[in-house]
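Before the break, one more example. Copy the sequence into your notebook; we will annotate it together after we see the structure.
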Amino acid sequence: MLELFKAGGVLMWPILLCSIIAVAIIAERFWSLRKSRITPVDLVRKVWQWEKDGTLDHARIKFLRNTSPLGRILAAGLVNRKHHRDVMKESIEEVGRHVAHELDRFLNTLGTIAAISPLLGLLGTVIGMIKVFAVITSHGVGDPSILADGISTALITTAAGLSVAIPALMFYRYFRGRVNDLVVTMEQEAMKMIEVMHGLRERDNPAENN
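Here is what the structure looks like once it is written out:
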């Protein structure tokens, strides 16, 4: 393996760097984008129970904000629960945009690695072919062993670039889809909370029911 790396030439170093960064991002995103961490189960039901019991105070909202990204979104709406429903919705949407942006963290870098890795391999191929033609110009084509260095550089860097780019692109698409699913789930849970809180306020106010 080390001999192949050396044979690939200087462009193997940036390709190696890309592979290390890609692996680090993939591991971090797998850990950070766990559904149990982003959208805990029954969080809206818990908020509804606090409201029903009359225990939904500042301390509860602060706790909710620090538990998860979904909790942060719900807390933004609960801070404005005494206002009109549209105010709650606007507060939730504003925080939701920030949360969605945070969920996309490092994905652009992973996508960039998926794009540039094959280009680095292609550049290595071009450099290798330049070496081949330089050797042909100097020594002719009588001895194939003389051409081996340039040809190996061309093939190895291409293979290395594709080996990094293919899994990077796969995981980029996978994490992009997961982020979209999580955002939709958070939107659904937030709207559910708005409906629940709005309904509670209506039932608790006899003047509005008559």
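The longest helix spans residues 144-203. The chain has ten helices and no strands. Try to locate both features in your own notes.
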